[in-house]
What we know:
Keywords: Membrane, Transmembrane, Transmembrane helix
Largest sheet: 5 strands, mixed
Protein name: DUF4878 domain-containing protein
Order of helices and strands: EHHHEEEEEEEEEEEEEHEEEEEEEEE
Shape: rod-shaped
Low-confidence stretches: 1-71
Number of domains: 3
Oligomer: single chain
Radius of gyration: 34 Å
Number of helices: 4
Number of strands: 23
Strand content: 35-45%
Structural class: alpha+beta
Amino acid sequence: MSGAASPDRWGDEHAIDLGAVDAPADEAPPVPTTIGVPRRRFRFPNAAMALAAVLFLVAAGAIAVAKWSPFGKRDAEGVVTAFLEAAQAGDIRGALAFTDQPHATGDFLVDEALDTRWSIVEVGQVASAPSAREGRYVSQVYAEIEAFDGTRIGFRYFVGIEDGEVRIENALSGSEAYPAFDHLDVNGVTVPVDEALGITNIVLLPGIYEFYPELPSTMELETEGVLLTLGNRFIPLGGDYADEWLPIPWPTVSAEGAALIDRALRAHLDACALDTERADCPFAFPEDDARTIAPAPGAVWEITAYPTVRAQWWGYELLQGFTLVTTVPGEARMAVVVTEDGESRETVVSCPVWADGLYADLDFDGGAVIRRPDGTTLERCSSLVEVG
Length: 388
């Protein structure tokens, strides 16, 4: 079980902080009370003035009681509790009704995107103050929820109270997401990502969200793909603290994916050996001013060793795939005719085979394609060596 996540991202402790937090910019500090201040004595010139003074004091007391009565506290806490209960029950419209955005829409503000495996741990008002606008008050209500695995997260809601209306004013916040793929899948709800921008903006209600639950077995997620969110805070399940940025998990290649890439690369190089004119192939003779080199009659490249490669997870690029890096170069040989100083001879040359500059695009159907997306030509046989 994970401890509760501190609302302060950079705090050393992991406990929930119930201390004071800055109120909205337009909020004035609470009005000081008069407890402990001696009463002033009033002298009334006649009975009429005395009666008027008494009525005035009674009215003023009633106003003060109305402003600071516990009903405002109960209203603020009740609205936050009702909001969370509706979200936990999967009632999106019901939850939004307690906010200042009752008609909000979003790709993931749909019933299918909700995972209700979480519970409400605590709801309590921690601050209240009159607003700069007369007759308006703002309460800060701390809430804490817990995922099914024990991960907790806390957040402070600002609840505005005015003209009998009680609404949560920071219940929803948009977060920028930079997915690795051309789509974003959250709890099984899939939306496309703008290919030109490579970014999307999402809004989430409190709860549990799993990214790419249908990821093929050829790929894995670098970090935990299931998050708990509340307000504008996010924490991976089992995490120690919450952040204000949405941590979209990044893909890596699994052992099965690495084996698939190796097979796909070998097939790609085999095709290159038969068609050396392709831009994404590494076989070609380097230019040489002192001699000319041409394939011997009927000769083709023979791959004697395939390169060993690694797919870099940080090199993943949208619509291209994983960048391939050569850890051990391969080798290809060919019988050639070398013409030098007007004389020709037949020999065998060796060319190192590198995969750098190629990408492995793993699709969601479990396949892999090796390609050079930008169409540029790979470095070809820069160190051609005569071996026979």
